[in-house]
Structures are given as structure tokens and as C-alpha cells.
Here is the input.
Amino acid sequence: MKKVLVTGARGYIGAVATYLLLQKGYKVVAVDNFFTGYREPLKKFESKFKSKFKYHQADLNDPSSLKKVFSLEENIDAVLHYAASCLVNESMENPQKYFQNNVVGTHNLLTQIIESGINNIVFHQRALCMAKQSTFQLMRNIRLTRRIRTDLASE
Ligand SMILES: NC(=O)c1ccc[n+]([C@@H]2O[C@H](COP(=O)([O-])OP(=O)(O)OC[C@H]3O[C@@H](n4cnc5c(N)ncnc54)[C@H](O)[C@@H]3O)[C@@H](O)[C@H]2O)c1
Here is the structure.
């Protein structure tokens, strides 16, 4: 049975995605910092889907809490990334918060994904359109990191 990790699973989109995956028979590991979103869906998934569903309170801005989740949860096949700050007005008033949560947080997550050898990710973050250049740089850095690692491994 395939195991999928969903970030932002307490949120609007993440909770729906989690439910659909569970219904289709996937195992789901939910990750959320519980800052926003709703508690009820996770409780319901837990009672309905039992051992197929687990959730962890972890923050993308705290690499040690992420590392803990990835070391507890082995054999993850894919990551669906929905954790984000995504209020348009707030992002205009406090862009630093959005850069930190959406760009740096995503970078931390991707670092952990690479370290765990996971090759499948769905990245669903409309809010990052605002930081197009940063995202582009981020993806370039990740490709570069992968290439460096491959080169080192072949040496
Ligand atoms: N809602 C929409 O109509 C819509 C449409 C297209 C794209 N999106 C994108 O989907 C993503 C999720 O949107 P949403 O509407 O579900 O938002 P939401 O605010 O309902 O959910 C986001 C979830 O992420 C969690 N979270 C935020 N920062 C975190 C962090 N650092 N670590 C761990 N968890 C964190 C929050 O606690 C929350 O549960 C966003 O990137 C958004 O841009 C949303």
C-alpha cells in the first residue's frame, strides 16, 4: 500500500486531498503546525481510517521537527505539499512572513525530501507566484544539490 505525506493537512485543500487519498486506499501521514486549519477533519480521519492515517504537529520552519517526522515515518512514496500562508492582503502587508513560511519552509521540506530519497512531490502553492524569482532560484538550487550529490556518489 502506497504511503503519502501531506503537508498542511489541517487546511482547506490539504484536508480534502487527505480524505480522497484515504478513500482510494492510500496510507496518509499528515503534517501541520496547527496554526490555522481545522482540528475536526483529522480527528474524523483518525476514527474512520484507523491505522491508515496518522498526523504529526510539525512546522516547516523547524527543520528538527520535520526531521523527526521523516525518521519516524519510513517508506514514504510521495509528498503532497499544501502547507502555506495564503492570504493575499496579509502577504502584501507582511511579505517577510510569506517569504519565510512559503519559500524557506518549502526549502526545508525539500531538503528533507532529498535526504529521505523521496522522488515524488506534488507542489501546490499558488502563494509562491508572488515570489516567482525566488521559487525559480530555489528549484535551481535543488537541481544543483541533486547534481552535486550524484557527482559525489559517482566519485
Ligand atoms: N484555497 C484555494 O482555493 C486554493 C486554490 C489554489 C491553490 N491553493 C493553495 O493551496 C495551499 C493550501 O491552501 P488552503 O486554502 O488549504 O490554506 P489553509 O490556510 O486552509 O491551509 C494551510 C495549512 O497549512 C498549515 N501550515 C501553514 N504553514 C505551515 C508550516 N510552516 N508548517 C506546517 N504547517 C503549516 C496551516 O496550519 C493550515 O492548516 C496554498 O499554497 C494555496 O495557495 C489554494
The chain has a mean pLDDT of 87.
